[in-house]
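We treat protein structure as text, and this decision shapes the records that our systems exchange. Such a record has a labelled line for the sequence and another for the backbone structure tokens. The record that follows is passed on verbatim for readers who wish to inspect the format:
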Amino acid sequence: MTVRVLVVDDSATMRSVITATLRADPEIDVVGQAADPYEARQLIKQLSPDVITLDIEMPNMDGLAFLDKIMRLRPTPVIMVSTLTQAGAEVNLKALEIGAFDCVAKPSSYNRDSFEQLAEKVKAAAQSRRRPMLAQRAPVLPGGSYAPDGRLVAIGSSTGGVEALITILSKFPVNCPATVISQHMPPTFTASFAARLNKLSAAEVSEAVDGAKLQTGHVYLAPGNAHLEVSSGYVRLSDAPKVNGHRPSVDVMFHSVLRSMGGRSVGVILTGLGRDGAEGLLALREAGAETIGQDEASCVVYGMPRAAYEIGAVMRQLPLEKIAERILLSTNVRSREHAG
């Protein structure tokens, strides 16, 4: 089935670039272009597109306000297209919380391949069943009794991962297990996202820095253009080539956890496009680690978890709202469910 797309951007040049990029894929048809939200609103009514690409900074009405109207009045998968600035990062994260499917950066002199996955993301957006839901704080464990057993938690995520990670980390206690995360995200977004997570979690969440010591109560988010690895109880960052098309790569992180912690770890794979992390998660399971995959019904994109599940890497497949509880039960020294 052909995916019908409406391109919304105040720049005629950018509309042409996005349109040309998408039309290079025979499964995508750009059915219209709009220079501002008012023109876009009329075209949405006339054309009923499957997916909308939306600029954030536009005249007459900013992209966030228009996105909110779309989600409330005519829910449609939306991919935000913006510049890679610090201010842009904050706005893009807000867009993801409102319900945008994903965000991509506009090409620049230092980021020429930013549209490399645009067509795949558009097709995935057309197949998505639901928009992310805002996280709600909930009790961590019955009675709030938690004492970490020293195991390391490693979480990999991609498209849809912003809300998934908010949902999980908002349930972590102040003394949560040391946790490392690789989320596919543009470079300038991760510092803002870590700060956002830090406000929503009782744990200390930060963008990872090379040489940081892994500590209880701390969560380390891989920077947007570096592989995160662990070695002898410390974070190591690397600018080695992309793996599975990504840096950070979930597979790189999982394999480093295997080398450093072996079975004394918990691997988690969340919503995302592609199969990054599947092989690494399988290696962790074979070493005796507990492995968790997000189930299809709660994923925005059941790609990475599906790939892991199909090769036998997932020990437990759970809905998103149950994953934090399972992580904490698995790493709680007081719990009797370590093997159960």
About this structure: Residues 86-98 form the longest helix (13 residues). The chain has two domains: 3-127, 142-330.
